[in-house]
Prior knowledge:
Layout: H1 23-32, H2 35-52, H3 54-57, E1 72-73, H4 76-80, E2 89-90, H5 105-141, H6 143-157, H7 161-175, H8 184-194, H9 198-208, H10 211-224, H11 228-235, H12 240-276, H13 288-296, H14 304-331
Parallel strand pairs: 1-2
Helix pairs in contact: 1-14, 2-5, 2-14, 5-6, 5-9, 5-10, 5-12, 5-14, 7-9, 10-12, 11-12, 12-13, 12-14, 13-14
Amino acid sequence: MTVSSSTAPPPVSVNLARKGDSLWGEAFRRLLRNRAAVIGGTIILIIVLVSILAPIIAVKSFEVQIPVDNNKVPGWVPAVFTTMKPYAKYSNQYPLGADDLGRDLFSRIVYGSRISLTVAFIGPLVSLIIGVVFGSIAGFLGGRVDNFMMRIVDVLYAFPQILFIILLMAFFRSTLSKPAPGTFSYSISQLDAATGGVLFIFMGLGLTAWETMARLSRGQVLSQREKEYIEAARTIGAGNVRIMFRHILPNILGPLIVAESLAIPGYISLEAFLSFIGLGVNPPTPSWGVMISDGSRILRTYPNQAIFPAMALAITMFAFNFLGDGLRDALDPRLKGTS
């Protein structure tokens, strides 16, 4: 029996081209499945919003002093810290209490988030830029250039980081304390004063925090430049600049970003430590390290003045740790394709 051509099924077109998921898209979906990372990212987002909306959220201005209200606390604080009851002076105008100068603790903690977040974002950015450029050049060129550049890193590694930063901060603050008007030093000191003392902290971090990133970048470039796809790029006539920016750099950014994200709590704690010992921000700019330092002097009688900013610092560091761990798991190529 002959089948009529009019009853034959229509041809089916099959599209064999399927767009694959990008590495970053898959990593983002894996990150969203990590509950700890999502919690950490949510906390960081809340802290960012608090720092942006600080003038609206803060009850009072952070520098306003009301001496008659010094060390006053709301009623719930002595109920938590029972050792305060014999000394407590009550006032519900201060949600977390007032410090020994009559400044609102809650407002200063809110404004202090700006300092910690600025260090958390600017510090790794400076380290990433300097370290990646320095380490990538050394690893890609190799030979004597690599040997010379990495010896510079070794010399800088010979100094203890914290001690080196303390010496740098002490040098900046002493030499630029009273510069002559119109000079470059005067302009730098005015810029530091306008930023509340954060500029010198960035200088100290920028000069000391990039060595680890330079070594990591060099190692990543050394491992990638001998791969087959780099040889293939060279055979089709790709130059060194194109190979670096189009092939090597996109493939090494994942581990570098993970390393810097895990280092962010270290930057925050370093700023808090410098502020704690008096080499951080300039008063009356609020910093959690300064507040912990001030509160530690009266810790037995008024523990709220040290514990509350310490809790804010600890929560922020935990959030960045959770997010950093999540980024490490999401960007690890060995986890590709796993749930």
